[in-house]
């Protein structure tokens, strides 16, 4: 998300709220900040990230759709803009059914602070029989969407992106990625997060500490099971960047209030990555001990003598059968 300009700061002034049209009033609905909405946004991020990772992505005038878990998403790529539509269907378990519309200029058409200018970012939802319209331009839950749309714009424009891992939902559309390549992509993605959020100096040390154990994990990545790989991907590609992206968007006072919790969350993630690396190192040692025991047995003098005796007996037996 881009930094606040004078227009954004003006719109967020409380005294001005009653005079703004509904679509410009910031979303301030407590019931909307729940796990369902977070999952609603996360699935959209996954979809956009999948498109950004495609090698042969059409350059213009293409519409992509996905339906999952009661959510429907539509992304339109045009020469001048990118449009994202997110819908809670009737199958959705959300208490507040919603529709989200985001339209952003392509970066080469109109940009602000290095990203495409936002044309529209509104949410429509039903509450107590009425339809409400609000802006999600600065809402923390929806912040990551703008970053992923920016990545998509970069991908369409042919700009280099850090490698991303294809989630299972795209398995039929993209070729299988070898474990070594997945591991290297995760490591590069973590390094990219550290570089991209270098301005968050209070988190810099923790991000740096994550890299060595991630390097060790990458060496034995193939030994992880499917669930462990999924958790690691989600942490590196989703949870860490989204946490920092939202933190960056806060005001100075909000950052002060949430700083300790943000650092604690990163520290917990670091502990998980570190433990994962230690477990893999222990597994490597166990495998080494097993190989040593096997080779000591297999190539010991006693074993070789027994093997020779067995081989001689088999040859004699076979000769007797042939002579019959």
Plain-language structure description:
Residues 163-176 have low confidence and may be disordered. The chain has helices at 6-11, 35-53, 143-156, 179-196, 201-219, 226-249, 252-298, 301-323; strands spanning 62-68, 71-77, 81-88, 98-105, 111-112, 115-116, 118-127, 130-135. The longest helix is centred in the C-terminal third of the chain and has 47 residues, at 252-298. The protein is 52% helix and 15% strand. It has 324 residues and is of the alpha+beta class. It folds into 2 domains: 1-161, no CATH class; 177-324. Strands 1-2-3-4-7-8 form a 6-stranded antiparallel sheet, covered by helices on one side.
What order do the helices and strands follow? Answer: HHEEEEEEEEHHHHHH
How many domain modules? 2
User: Which percent range describes the beta-strand content?
Assistant: 15-25%
In total, how many beta strands? 8
Which structural class do you get from the secondary structure elements?
A: alpha+beta
Percent in helix: 40-55%
Placed side by side, the strands forming the largest sheet appear as 1-2-3-4-7-8
Low-confidence stretches: 163-176
Number of helices: 8
Q: What is the averaged pLDDT score?
A: 80
Q: Biggest sheet: strands, sense, closure? A: 6 strands, antiparallel
- Give the radius of gyration: 27 Å
């Amino acid at each position: 998300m881009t930094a606040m300009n004078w227009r954004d700061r003006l719109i967020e002034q409380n005294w001005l709220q009653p005079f703004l049209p509904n679509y410009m009033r910031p979303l301030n609905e407590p019931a909307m900040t729940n796990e369902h909405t977070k999952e609603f946004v996360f699935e959209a991020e996954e979809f956009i990230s999948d498109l950004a990772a495609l090698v042969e992505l059409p350059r213009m005038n293409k519409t992509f759709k996905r339906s999952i878990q009661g959510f429907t998403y539509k992304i339109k790529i045009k020469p001048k803009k990118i449009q994202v539509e997110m819908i809670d269907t009737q199958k959705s378990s959300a208490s507040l059914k919603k529709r989200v519309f985001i339209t952003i200029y392509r970066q080469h058409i109109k940009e602000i602070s290095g990203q495409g200018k936002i044309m529209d970012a509104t949410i429509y939802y039903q509450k107590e029989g009425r339809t409400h319209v609000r802006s999600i331009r600065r809402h923390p839950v929806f912040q990551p969407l703008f970053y992923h749309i920016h990545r998509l714009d970069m991908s369409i424009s042919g700009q280099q992106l850090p490698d991303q891992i294809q989630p299972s939902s795209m398995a039929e559309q993209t070729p299988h990625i070898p474990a070594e390549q997945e591991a290297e992509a995760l490591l590069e993605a973590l390094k990219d997060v550290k570089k991209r959020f270098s301005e968050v100096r209070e988190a810099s040390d923790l991000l740096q500490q994550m890299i060595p154990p991630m390097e060790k994990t990458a060496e034995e990545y193939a030994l992880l099971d499917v669930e462990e790989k999924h958790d690691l991907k989600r942490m590196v590609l989703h949870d860490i960047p989204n946490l920092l992206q939202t933190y960056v968007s806060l005001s100075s006072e909000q950052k002060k209030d949430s700083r300790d919790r943000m650092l604690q969350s990163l520290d917990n993630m670091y502990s998980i990555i570190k433990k994962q690396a230690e477990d893999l190192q222990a597994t490597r040692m166990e495998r080494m001990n097993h190989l040593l025991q096997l080779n000591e047995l297999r190539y010991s003098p006693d074993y070789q003598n027994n093997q020779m005796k067995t081989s001689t007996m088999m040859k004699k037996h076979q000769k007797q059968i042939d002579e019959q």
